[in-house]
Design goal:
This protein is α+β, with helices and mostly antiparallel strands. About 35% of the residues lie in helices and about 25% in strands. The longest helix has 14 residues.
Length: about 180
């Protein structure tokens, strides 16, 4: 069985962070030619992966988190971009509440500045607390913040919904965040 986690990490590097370093040209929506991505995979790994491995990776989700999108012969990473041009999504109406997982270390700055994208293009918000716990838990103890997304949207913030478990927003002001006691 091929190591699809390793393949996914390499694809993230190419599609989210260093597209130009791999000769990939992302269009205004973050898409590039899947054959060009495949060429880079074979340059790095030779025959370790097959096209079927790539197809398997593109069809799987990790705990409900879809990482890549394929449309015809084009592919893109859905979110998490840094170091590439801004990826655009269609604005949508979010649900009333979304969740953001963070760590105790980050809580002080969030209380002062709200949620900001930091080195990414968007703040990531989850539709369920379990997903937010999983995301934040990778970095230590998880603290879950409730984001009053509908109120923020009604106040003019644009939300995006690239896959079922997540929403994206440029930033969330303190006024729309419910902090734990």
């Amino acid at each position: 069985m091929a190591d699809l986690v390793r393949l996914s990490k390499f694809m993230s590097l190419m599609l989210r962070h260093k597209a130009a370093d791999f000769g990939l040209s992302l269009d205004e929506n973050g898409f590039t030619d899947i054959d060009t991505v495949w060429e880079q995979i074979t340059l790095k790994y030779g025959t370790q992966y097959t096209r079927a491995d790539l197809d398997a990776l593109l069809s799987q989700t990790e705990a409900g988190k879809q990482r890549y999108e394929r449309v015809g012969t084009r592919i893109r990473a859905l979110y998490g971009h840094s170091g590439v041009r801004e990826i655009k999504y269609e604005a949508v109406q979010p649900p009333e509440i979304l969740y953001h997982g963070t760590t105790p270390e980050a809580l002080k700055s969030i209380r002062e500045e709200g949620l900001t994208a930091q080195q990414r293009q968007y703040v990531h918000l989850s539709t369920h607390t379990e997903r937010a716990v999983n995301v934040a838990g990778r970095h230590g103890k998880a603290i879950i913040l409730n984001v009053r997304a509908k109120d923020a949207h009604d106040a003019g913030l644009e939300f995006y919904h690239p896959e079922p478990q997540h929403y994206l927003v440029k930033a969330v002001p303190i006024a729309f965040i419910d902090f734990p006691e």
